Amino acid sequence: MNKDKMILKDNTTIELEAGAYLTNIQVVAADRAGMVEIWKKMTDDNLSNVQIQTGDGLTIGTYTDLVLVSETSTVSPDGTVLTSYHLREKTDEEKRLDALEEGQTVQDGAISDLGSATSALADQIGGEQ
Do the bridges between strand 49-53 and strand 5-7 make them parallel or antiparallel, or are there none, so unpaired? Predict the structure, then answer.
């Protein structure tokens, strides 16, 4: 039987254990290093667009703007690691703050560009005297 899977924004596919749900995504890794590699993929960018699919490839959930709240891992006697990832959707306030920060970054870049253009123009005018 094919396992359900979670597909992150960068197209990383992570196999899920049976009964996984958003606040308890369960993943088995072969060892601790494998667990860490999966955990490293749980970035804000990768969690900005996530699909959950059945083992047959049917999409049963599409999520945007997820946040990794916590993770808990248990090492089995055979060395495999079961990790439970607690995910949630960002609140409206968090989404507004992200948009504000993005807008500020664009504005900061525009101000910097304007400063560079003004300096270049001042140098040209100064050179003509």
Answer: antiparallel
* Rounded CA separation 88/50 (Å): 12
Q: What would the mean pLDDT of 64-78 be, rounded to a whole number? A: 96
Tokens for 26? Answer: 């369960």
b/e map 82-116, b = 16+ CB within 10 Å? ebbbebeebeeeeeeeeeeeeeeeeeeeeeeeeee
pTM here is 0.72
Pairing between β-strand 25-29 and β-strand 13-15 as defined by DSSP bridges: unpaired
Measured CA to CA in angstroms, residue 68 lies from 18, 33, 46, 87, 123 at distances of: 20, 19, 11, 5, 50
